[in-house]
Structure formats: structure tokens, C-alpha cells
Amino acid sequence: MADWRRSGNDEMSPGDGSPHDAVRSSGRPSGANFNQIGKTEEMLDHENQSRVEGLATKISRLKGIAVDLESESRESNRYLDDMTDDFGSTTGLLSGSIHRINNMINTGRSNRKIMCYIILGLVGLFLITYYLIIRVTS
After folding, report:
1. pLDDT tens digits for 106-117?
2. Per the confidence metrics, is the pTM higher than 0.85?
3. Cβ-proximal residues to 15 (8 Å cutoff; 6+ apart), any chain
4. Are residues 126 and 73 in the same domain?
5. Backbone angles phi, psi at 17, to 5 degrees
6. What does the pLDDT look like over 11-38, one tens digit per residue?
7. Which domain holds residue 43?
């Protein structure tokens, strides 16, 4: 088979660097172009692999975030359930205390004196505590 080069006229012919040079008469790429195609495929494969690795890294980060969110939501739900129980017990305690105070108020005059002493004692305790806190902080 003859390798055609540029003839006297400006017409393109096989062997002169045209795209037709890549394929010989057998229909296969020539050796130089076959290597170039192989390098291009290798470069594309390498780029695809690096992008796949990047996606895998991002997916693993997202998975970690999802697992963290799940554990955080479970802990928050557990905390809220505990708070609900605590508020329920506090409500029961306060309602019992209010009931006892109402019974004491409704019973008679002697209990009213005790009630006044208790209130005055609590106000005095509050003022002493307030004074001590102000003195310590300044």
C-alpha cells in the first residue's frame, strides 16, 4: 500500500495529516492515532475515577451527617420524654401543695395566723438570700 503525500495540487490525500490518515485501508486506526485514542481514553477513565472517588467521599460525608442527625434526634426525643415526665411529676407536686394550702386557708382563723407567719418567713428568707447574692457578686 502506498502512503500518499501532498501532490502538486492542494488537494488533501491520505498521508498528509488529514483526518483520513487515522484510518488505513483496513479500517483500523493507524499506530500513532491508536496511541492517541488510548491516551484520551485513559485520561477520561482517570478523570471518571477521580470524580467517582469525589462522589464517594461526598456520599460518605452525607451518610455520616445523616447518622449524626438520627442519633441527635433520638437523644432529643429521649430528653423531651424525660422532661415530659419531670413536668408531670412537678405538676402533681404543685397541685398537691396548692390543695393543702387551700385546705389550710379554708379551715379557720388560727390557721390564718400560721399562714401569715409562713408568708412573712418566706418573704424574709427571699430578702436575705437576695442581699447575700448582691453582696457576693459585687
Report:
1. 776 666 777 788
2. no
3. 3, 4, 5, 21
4. no
5. 90, 5
6. 444 444 444 444 444 555 555 666 787 7
7. 30-107
Report the C-alpha dihedral over residues 49, 52, 58, 64, rounded to 10 degrees.
Answer: -100
- Which H or E run contains 29? none
- Shared domain for 100 and 61, answered yes or no, is yes
How much is the CA Rg of the chain, to the nearest whole Å? Answer: 45
Give CA angle at 15 (12, 20), nearest 5°.
65
Mark 20-34 as b/e (b = at least 16 C-beta within 10 Å). Answer: ebeeeeeeebeeeee
Reduced to 3 DSSP states, what percent helix, strand and coil does the chain have, rounded to the nearest 5?
80, 0, 20
**Are the beta carbons of 21 and 33 closer than 8 angstroms?**
yes
| CA 108/CA 94 separation, integer angstroms | 23
Dist CA 63 CA 100 (whole Å)? 55
Number of independent structural domains in the chain: 2
Task: Show the cell assigned to 125.
Answer: 428568707
Q: What is the distance between the alpha carbons of residues 74 and 137, in angstroms, rounded to a whole number?
A: 40
